TrEMBL record:
<dbReference type="Pfam" id="PF02525">
    <property type="entry name" value="Flavodoxin_2"/>
</dbReference>
<protein>
    <submittedName>
        <fullName>NAD(P)H dehydrogenase (Quinone)</fullName>
    </submittedName>
</protein>
<dbReference type="InterPro" id="IPR003680">
    <property type="entry name" value="Flavodoxin_fold"/>
</dbReference>
<dbReference type="InterPro" id="IPR029039">
    <property type="entry name" value="Flavoprotein-like_sf"/>
</dbReference>
<keyword id="KW-0560">Oxidoreductase</keyword>
<comment type="similarity">
    <text>Belongs to the NAD(P)H dehydrogenase (quinone) family.</text>
</comment>
<dbReference type="InterPro" id="IPR051545">
    <property type="entry name" value="NAD(P)H_dehydrogenase_qn"/>
</dbReference>
<feature type="domain" description="Flavodoxin-like fold">
    <location>
        <begin position="8"/>
        <end position="176"/>
    </location>
</feature>
Length: 230
């Protein structure tokens, strides 16, 4: 582990609509975490106008490598997170391009493919838990039949866990999310988010007891905002 983590959950939301199902998932997760006495920091990529395009000089190892202030700001936010939570819709079998850009530009900013290949455990995310909360308009069965589900879990969840020496990964998926989703199913899904958040908080408390995390002090909390638009 790169250092002791704080009892902080960084929730990275990636959906263009501010009133989307995914936005409701992110809001619910953050609310439950805060009610549990832990810290939740929301990074809404579309509201932040995050630029997902990786420039040539942003690649680690490049002779002209330059880390932008925006990326450095994001790295500071996630560096001491006990949980990194991705909230996004599955589009064409993969995460939205903006989230992949966040991985490329932020997570990979100071950690090259060479470091991944040699299993370097000095990543800033070493020891962080990864949780994905995703949605799709199709059924889980359909994703399985297309091979999309297993591919996504393999190349995104488990790859990131191993590449950055993360402590664990878990994926909670909500299928058949449509515009006219009934209140009953919406409430059921929000209950699943609540349970996932409680589970995450329980893991953090266990890590605190083991000395792998420091307890969250609300008196030291502050609202984290983007340094400026990307």
């Amino acid at each position: 582990m790169s250092g002791t983590k704080k009892s902080k959950h960084v929730v990275v939301l990636c959906h263009p609509e501010p009133d989307s199902f995914n936005a409701a998932v992110a809001a619910k997760y953050c609310a439950v975490v805060r009610e549990s006495g832990q810290q939740a920091v929301l990074r809404d990529l579309y509201r932040m106008k995050f630029d997902p395009i990786l420039q040539g000089n942003e690649r680690p190892g490049s002779a002209t490598f330059h880390q932008s202030p925006h990326v450095a700001h994001e790295l500071d936010i996630i560096a001491d997170a006990a949980f990194l939570v991705f909230v996004y819709p599955i589009w064409f079998g993969t995460p939205p391009a903006m989230l992949k850009g966040y991985v490329d530009r932020v997570l990979g900013s100071d950690f090259s493919f060479r470091a991944v290949k040699r299993r370097d455990n000095k990543s800033r995310l070493a020891g962080t838990h990864l949780l994905s909360l995703t949605s799709s308009g199709t059924s889980q069965m359909w994703l399985d039949e297309q091979g999309a589900w297993q591919s996504l879990v393999t190349v995104f969840d488990h790859y990131l866990e191993r590449a950055f020496s993360m402590a664990s990964t878990e994926h909670v998926h909500f299928s058949s999310i449509v515009d006219d989703l009934s209140e009953r199913f919406f409430g059921q899904y929000m209950q699943e988010v609540l349970e996932a958040a409680h589970k995450s908080c329980s893991i953090v408390r266990e890590d605190v007891s083991a000395g792998e995390c420091t307890a969250y002090d609300p008196a030291l909390d502050r609202q984290v905002e983007p340094s400026e638009d990307f």
